[in-house]
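Hi Y.,

Following your request, here is the sequence exactly as I used it, all 359 residues.
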Amino acid sequence: MSLTLPMARTQKNKATAHHLGLLKARLAKLRRELITPKGGSGGGTGEGFDVAKTGDARVGFVGFPSVGKSTLLSNLAGVYSEVAAYEFTTLTTVPGVIRYKGAKIQLLDLPGIIEGAKDGKGRGRQVIAVARTCNLILIVLDVLKPLLHKKLIEHELEGFGIRLNKQPPNIGFKKKDKGGINFTATCAQSELDAETVKSILAEYKIHNADITLRSDSTADDLIDVVEGNRVYIPCIYVLNKIDQISIEELDIIYKVPHTVPISAHHRWNFDDLLERMWDYLRLVRIYTKPKGQLPDYTSPVVLPNERTSVEDFCMKIHKNLIKEFKYALVWGSSVKHNPQKVGKDHVMEDEDVIQLVKK
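Below is the corresponding structure, written out as tokens. Let me know if you'd prefer a different format.
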């Protein structure tokens, strides 16, 4: 892409911020057209690459060839997996399902994500489509040459609209029919001003909108909000092959954020990796209690952190359940009294016990 050249050549200062913002918007638009091919002549779709979503969460493994992804996967799935986790034989990316703390976690090896995938090369597109649906991405790196790989992989994923370990930018954006661009910033901005915002929006042919910047934002943040197809996924950097370095080096690595050093071959530090995965996935386990019996602590219903109301719990089991729902009794940290009678909007916390009462 020839646009990255003028961007690299341009000096960065206040006078050129406007110009840079424009180039960034143009680049983002071109990238989007690459990722989502235009409709029209429906060519062959290629081999099926969609992976059936099983379990409560999905973890994607990304990495260059020969960093030990496969070893890590087979050892992880081998240690903690149910027997015959290979229910799917034809699909290319499912290596296994592990059970951890009662939750079923699907592990996916995402092949060929690296070589120019974001420019639409090879299988890149389909792989990324799968990567965007993951709840957590593990970037597997070789501990001897981690930084180069890390930068390259992050660059590929960023180019696909996947943002790692970031929160969505705090920018309000609302299109209107008339009234021009209404720009407000609730705090001091180091990069964006009304002029730059206007020019970036003009690049998207948006001339009437309300923009509210609630934090110090960059041009990239604004483009992310306007594009609106960004996904924000937590990410852990897994540094493999720690059997080849010294203890002192290991101590330094341990201080790096979002990083877990392991040795896939020797199965070192897997428990730490699984614990960290659990923290990042932020799943909520709800135990069920049939009337007059003890709660079933062996197989919890696992919900994602954003949707943990009683209604979500009912929908997870069966969509007809909510029609017969009268009230629920909940024991645990989300209620003041044990048990407490709650309605369908009550939000539950990890390891609560619930008993449903039907009409």
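Residues 14-35 form the longest helix (22 residues).

Thanks again,
Q.
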